[in-house]
Design a protein that fits this description.
Structural class of chain A: alpha+beta
Strand order of the largest sheet of chain A: 8-10-7-11-9-12-13
Largest sheet of chain A: 7 strands, mixed
Largest interface: A-B, 55 and 56 residues
Order of helices and strands of chain A: HEEEHEHEEEHHHEHEHHEEEE
Shape of chain A: globular
Oligomer: homodimer
Chain lengths: 328, 328
């Protein structure tokens, strides 16, 4: 069944709209009109997901809807910004009602949970491509950037790393009967953006990034932008029980109980990696209310480059796992 | 040759960047940080262009780059908003350097001409899909909306209508040797967004829309949203000399010298259609400084629906040209 652009938007995306008072005019005109409060800066980011590149064709459409928004919220979290509005550009091969129903349902769930209003977009017929742009606020000068890490800062990560990358690998290798797979798949399909935690880091962290390309690459961005280096300890990188069980079952090569390519170069983690100066580390205790695991994994140093060491002091060859020492 | 995402952005899209003082942080972090001046509202719109749907594969990449931004600027023009920032999401089948060079060149030209800064985006490998989002400002309460037409308002359009639609048709029918084709093709590939004119309409027009789907459909949106109707005169719809010459050569059926399907339902015009109350019509004279042709084509009436009449008083059957009388 074919649906016109207007009926797709009205039927699926306006059925239970979050309503924000700062939306002066939402969907339905040439553009949306939005009120940014005085004293706040606008923070905006966009990400595109494409079938067969970012997700396989058989992915459940709810997960696609959820994740297309979640990865953008994760970028705002890494800025310490509060999300407010979203636009959605949807290119669809055919307007299948069951697909749209599931996609929009999980998209709107996350909108509601995050207090975000859909204010515009575009629906066209074409290959399956989803582009989402999220806009939010941060008090002037308070955004958390990549370029603010200082020697002596301790390096932390939230949650556990490598789960999504392992799920992707297991699915590709059709090892989906392994114990723990369902849990890992959930990490791949429904990553939780740490928005409140990012906001809480505003007065604590120096530099923040979200881990989408793998720890080594993303921490590498912080180092390059800040003109510093770092040493991290592979045995301190947090991993989930499900990941450990699967890696043991598969007999993957490990260093200190970690599979380096998963925890250093896995990608799709959507955890936060951030640096905190020593005199503000105790402030992290107040953030325990978020019930989010946070682990110290290393330290920022003056000498450029990322160094990863094992518990026995031996260096881990990062170049093997996609890390390139670069400066911008 | 394959280029990484970062080198595509740096090499092609940052080579001659417009630099705005309200961009606190541009490309290179998790998100952009932007300053919306106090007292101004944010206006934002997004549009997606897809190969083989919005343009044929052989289209010159410069035109694709230009138009992907121009259609969004046209939406801001229709709001009376001043454009400021743009994000670009580019899905490319392969990173062909000559394609990227031409695409980015005309995209950046229009950025410069419009004072717009590229502040973020995403480059991925996939089918050729371009999503552009433009953000701009309007003084609080001054945006020009679709829902503000009042009975008695005169209806105006800028420029000429039907040129782009005729170019599309000629190209499809391989009638590209016709006199006037080159001029019409330019209207299709390089539509001029009437940004300054839209801003100047803020204190003059009641309702404004840009014509992307054809006059009947887009004026229809104004009527439906405003709860009014209109009568327009087909002999008053402005057409170009090139269009007249081509239509005559092709022997197309005309009413009062107009081919109805081109001027009423052509689409891709990116001219502005707006309504002005009688007591502000004289204010339009001050806008002659823009050297933009503006033509009165009809009047807003209390009775819902769009009526189009010929010079002899006979009604033109709009239903034949894609106009549906609908209310929202």
């Amino acid at each position: 069944m074919s649906l016109s652009e207007f009926s797709i938007i009205e039927k699926y995306f306006m059925r239970r709209a979050t309503t924000r008072r700062d939306v002066s005019l939402g969907i339905g005109d040439d553009a949306a009109i939005l009120d940014v409060p005085d004293g706040l800066q606008l923070v905006t980011t966009t990400d595109t997901l494409i079938e067969d590149i970012h997700f396989p064709a058989e992915t459940n459409p709810g997960a696609i809807g959820y994740k297309s928004l979640a990865v953008n919220l994760s970028d705002l979290a890494a800025m310490g910004a509060e999300p407010a509005w979203v636009t959605l550009s949807l290119s669809l091969p055919d307007a299948r009602e069951d697909w749209l129903d599931a996609f929009s349902n999980d998209f709107l769930d996350l909108c509601e949970k995050s207090g975000v209003q859909l204010v515009g977009g575009d629906t066209v017929s074409g290959p399956l491509v989803i582009t989402v742009q999220v806009m939010g606020f941060v008090p002037a000068g308070k955004a958390l950037r990549r370029d603010a890490a200082k020697p002596g800062d301790r390096i932390f990560v939230t949650g556990t790393l490598g789960d999504a990358a392992l799920a992707l690998r297991l699915r590709k290798e059709q090892e989906t009967a392994l114990s723990g797979y369902t849990e890992l798949l959930r990490r791949l399909e429904y990553p939780e953006p740490h928005v409140s935690y990012g906001i809480a880091l505003r007065d604590i962290a120096n530099a923040v990034i979200d881990i989408s390309d793998g720890l080594a690459a993303d921490l590498g961005h912080i180092l390059a932008r800040s003109g510093v280096g770092a040493t991290i300890h592979i045995d301190q990188i947090p991993v989930s029980h499900a990941l450990q069980v699967c890696c043991n079952q598969l007999g993957l090569t490990q260093i200190d109980g970690r599979v380096p390519e998963l925890v250093l170069a896995g990608g799709d983690d959507y955890e936060l990696c951030f640096t905190v100066p020593e005199d503000r580390i105790e402030n992290l205790q107040a953030l325990e209310r978020f019930a989010l695991a946070v682990t110290e994994i290393g330290v920022i140093e003056p000498m450029e480059g990322l160094r990863c060491v094992a518990a026995d002091g031996e260096p881990v060859a990062l170049q093997r796992f996609g890390y390139q020492h670069f400066s911008e």
